[in-house]
Structure formats: C-alpha cells, structure tokens
Amino acid sequence: MKSALATRPNVRVGASRKTAAARAVTRAQAVAAPTTLKKGVVTGQDLIDVLNHAKVHGYAIPAVNCTMSPVINACLEAAKKANAPMIVQFSNGGGVFMAGKSASNEEQRAAVKGCVAGALMVRELAELYGVPVILHTDHCAKNLLPWFDGLLEANEAYFAKHGEPLFSSHMLDLSEEPIHENLEICKKYLARMKKINCFLEMEIGITGGEEDGVDNSDAAPEDLYSKPEEIYEVYEALQPIAPDFYSIAAAFGNVHGVYSPGNVKLTPKILKNAQKYVQEKTGSSSDKPVYFVFHGGSGSSREEIREAVSYGVIKMNIDTDTQWSFWDGVKNYESKNHAYLQGQIGNPEGAEKPNKKYYDPRAWIRKAEEATVARLLDAYEDLNATNACAKGTK
User: Fold this and answer.
1) What pLDDT does 26 receive?
2) What pLDDT is attached to residue 357?
C-alpha cells in the first residue's frame, strides 16, 4: 500500500512563515480522527490513522518489549481483550534472544534475524486478534547502527515484494550524541525510510535509569528535561523530509527501571509547553503538532500518565513491569503446585502419580501470559485506551 505521505512535496528548511503555516494546515487536516482502523499489522497511512485516532481521542498505545513468543501472545491477547491497538516491539537484546543466545551476533546478524523472525510471527498472527498492531524496534544507539541498517534492508526487501515495510516503525536513540549529530543521522535515515513508508521514532534528551544494557543512571539532572527550543529544532529538521511521519521521545524526567510511586519526578508540562512553542512557531491550527512518546513510565501515577497523554503522547513503553508480571505468573504457579514439581513421578496424591501436566512448559508459561495480560489491561486503563477501537469508529 502506498501512503499518501510518500507523495507529499518536501518543504525547504528555513522556509517562510507563510509556507510553514501552510504546512501546519496540512498537518491539522491529517489529525482528523479516522472512522475506521485497519486490523492486523499497520504501516504507512494505516499507521498514521491509528496515531491520529489516539491523539484525537486522548489515549496512548502501550509498547511492549518482546523477547519470546509467549510475550507476543500476551500482548495480542491483551489488545483483543481491551479492544485497542498494541505496539509489539523488539530491542537489540530481545532480537538476539529471539534468535537464540548461542547464535553468533557478529555484525549484528542475530539481532537482525531475531527481530525479523519475531516480526514475521506477528504478521502471521495479528489478524486473528482483530485489532491494529504496530511492529516496532526500540532504542538504537550509535554503536548499534549496523543493526538498524540490517533492519532497513529487511524492510526494503519486504517492501519490494509486498508494497509495504515489514516493520511499521523503528527508533533511533542518538540522545547521547550532540544534537546536531543526532539530527543529521536521523535526517539521513528518515529520508531512506520515507521511501518505503516506514515511520521513525527519535529521542532527544536522556531517559534516566537502565534498560536492555543501556545505563543512564548517572545522567546529569538537566539532561532529563528537554527544552521546547530543542523539540522545535527536531521538528524543523525532520518535517521537510517526511511531514508528520516521525515521533519524538522527549525527556520530561522519565526514568527506565522500577521505582516506587512518587520517586520519579515527572514534569509532563514540558510536553505541553513544547506543543505550544511548535504551534506558535509554525502557525499550526493544531494544539498538538508533535507526536510524543513516553519512555520510562514505571513508578508513574495514573494521573501523571494521563496528563502526559493529554499533551500529545501517543505511545508509552512498558518493559520492566511486564518482565515482572511474566515472572510473577511463574512464581505463583510454582508456589501453588510446588509439591507436584519436585520430580517426574510422585506427589501428595501418591508415590507413583505422574506430574507431567504440572511441569509441561505450556502450563506454567500460560500462567506467565495470563499475569502479563492482566498487567497490560491495567496499562490500557492508565493510558485511557480501554475499548479505544470503538471510539468514533464505524
């Protein structure tokens, strides 16, 4: 499917205010909420329809880092139960795990192959669940660009055969680089991605804490808060290349990892101020001209999450909490059935009684899935996304 976005003319950086305002009008028209959403994996304009639907109806979509098929299954099941979109995403380390830890990751081959294998699985299954599914990859730092290149090659090959990319979107996280270098690399990749209707997520500022081997726990406090001028600089750099076909993971005090409520000092109003700044600079008629992404939400209250959503957050990453829920399901199963899990034969019902049905991986992995589904249903509530697919649709 060819997105209408791919045919929009580029707009020169530094264009006049009149031209910028005209561009903003185009954006405002695009934000009108669609009345139908495609089921299954969405890319190109179908993806934009889902993001605009979220923005207009005031909800955000959970994005879960998947490391194996049971986590994918839990995501799809939760989305079906919530009647809402889901973002299935893979990190670099998650891709390696999907490929098998014994496989060589020389030149990022295992990371690429694992992510591609996961994406193909999702594509085969997604339509069974009757909701929109976004296929995404998470943080890609500068040292992981060979992984990103491999993913884009897989997308381009898939596009040549099917007319759409394998993945809906990818994330570049060059927030540790100088902003000019961050933007130059993002511009180069966005130009390439636009040709195959693949959406870009980029990061500016630093999300604190640690996730998937990326440790920013010693980040300077001022780096945890993006400035409106920086966010506008991103908009100004990327908008001419692919209008409204990128999102920004801005920093507003969010931290990766697990923290007790109240220990994470979020400042969602940074997003509100940035939206206003971009709107004023461009003359946009939209009060939310930017798609924002929320990383590091663990420990945030429902009120803080919903405030961030009200300022244009359309995606929130969930990793730490779903890792715990997966383990919690296994832990509770083992505790309940401990006496039946000490050997293949012999349990409280008799010395010769078999225990196969208790140690069958499908039994205890299913409990991990169920616990993760329950956690994701809570996340849908936090994000005001329960029954989202019924909002304003036919």
Assistant:
1) 39
2) 98
Which positions ≥6 away from 257 have C-beta within 8 Å? 209, 210, 211, 217, 296, 298, 320
pLDDT tier at 254, thresholds 50, 70, 90: confident
Q: Is 138 a catalytic residue?
A: yes
The set of residues, in sequence order, having a beta carbon less than 8 Å from that of 66 and lying 6+ positions away, is 72, 75, 88, 89, 90, 94, 98, 118
Identified catalytic residue from 46, 49, 138, 319: 138
Q: Identify the structural domains of the chain with CATH numbers, from first to last.
A: 4-390 (3.20.20.70)
Amino acid 228 reads P
The answer on pLDDT for 257 being more than 60 is: no
Q: Is the pLDDT of residue 136 over 80?
A: yes
HEC sequence for the chain:
CCCHHHHCCCCCCCCCHHHHHHHHHHHHHHCCCCCCCCCEECCHHHHHHHHHHHHHHCCCEEEEECCCHHHHHHHHHHHHHHCCCEEEEECHHHHHHHHCCCCCCHHHHHHHHHHHHHHHHHHHHHHHHCCEEEEEECCCCHHHHHHHHHHHHHHHHHHHHHCCCCCCEEEECCCCCCHHHHHHHHHHHHHHHHCCCCEEEEEECCCECEECCEECCCCCHHHHECCHHHHHHHHHHHCCCCCCCEEEEECECCECCCCCCCCCCCCCHHHHHHHHHHHHHHCCCCCCCCCEEECCCCCCCHHHHHHHHHCCEEEEEECHHHHHHHHHHHHHHHHHCHHHCCCCEEECCEEEEECHHHHCHHHHHHHHHHHHHHHHHHHHHHCCCCCHHHCCCC
User: How large is the average pLDDT for residues 88-115?
Assistant: 98
Q: What are the tens digits of pLDDT across the range 287-340?
A: 999 999 999 877 788 999 999 999 999 999 999 999 999 999 999 999 999 999
Count the Cβ atoms, other than its own, within 10 Å of residue 130. Answer: 13
Residue with tokens 């293949």: 344
133: left (phi over 0), alpha (psi -120 to 50) or beta: beta
